[in-house]
């Protein structure tokens, strides 16, 4: 099964049914899924987001999808905008160093999709910093070796 099809199926599961996502335990996975919540002061609730990573040849694909509100309330938050900064990081001498960044805004109808190209081999991870109404959240994917 192609990686694009797997990502599409995971996104469809999340969008259609709220999906249950499990963070992989393997440090050598070619793709990862990481869930995190972001507080949104304008509506007084937390919103679930999911960070997807996948490795494709010399490229690393990153997606951040805004999910449902988790507390209080439930359902999509149409109009909730979250600023996202994605850092692609490589382990160098035991420490993760940022090698590339990308910034965008995520909404319920506009996920973030970005491909980092010509990425050299190494132990990698993605770091996401999200900001909504002055509230900042940092989430880090499981690392993988490419």
Task: Summarize this structure briefly.
It is built from one helix and nine strands, in the order αβββββββββ. It has 146 residues and is mainly beta.
Structure explained in plain terms:
It contains one helix and nine strands; from the N terminus they run H-E-E-E-E-E-E-E-E-E. The strands form two sheets. Strands 4, 5, 7, 8 and 9 form a five-stranded antiparallel sheet that branches. It has 146 residues and is mostly beta strands. A hairpin with a 4-residue loop joins strand 1 and strand 2 (45-56). It has one helix at residues 3-17; strands at residues 31-40, 45-56, 59-71, 82-92, 95-106, 112-116, 123-132, 135-140, 144-145.
- Structural class of the helix and strand makeup? mainly beta
Q: Quote the average pLDDT.
A: 81
**Number of discrete helical segments:** 1
How far apart the termini lie comes to 19 Å
Instruction: Provide the low-confidence segments as ranges.
Output: 5-29
Total strands: 9
Q: Can you write the helix and strand succession as a string?
A: HEEEEEEEEE
The percent range for helix content is 10-25%
Please state the overall shape, judged from the principal axes of the Cα atoms: elongated
Task: Specify Rg, calculated over alpha carbons.
Answer: 15 Å
Strand content: over 45%
The biggest beta sheet reads: 5 strands, antiparallel
Quickly list its features:
146 residues, mainly beta, five-stranded antiparallel sheet, elongated
């Amino acid at each position: 099964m192609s990686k694009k099809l797997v990502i599409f199926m995971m996104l469809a599961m999340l969008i259609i049914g709220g999906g249950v996502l499990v963070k992989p335990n393997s440090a050598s996975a070619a793709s990862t899924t990481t869930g995190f919540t972001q507080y949104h002061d304008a509506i007084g609730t937390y919103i679930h987001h999911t960070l997807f990573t996948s490795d494709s040849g010399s490229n690393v694909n990153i997606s951040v999808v805004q999910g449902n509100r988790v507390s209080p309330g439930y359902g999509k938050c149409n109009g909730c905008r979250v600023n996202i900064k994605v850092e692609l990081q490589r382990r160098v001498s035991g420490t993760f160093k940022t090698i590339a960044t990308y910034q965008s805004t995520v909404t319920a109808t506009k996920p973030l999709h970005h491909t980092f190209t010509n990425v050299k081999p190494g132990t990698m991870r993605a770091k996401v910093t999200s900001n909504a109404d002055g509230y900042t959240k940092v989430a880090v994917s499981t690392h993988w070796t490419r």
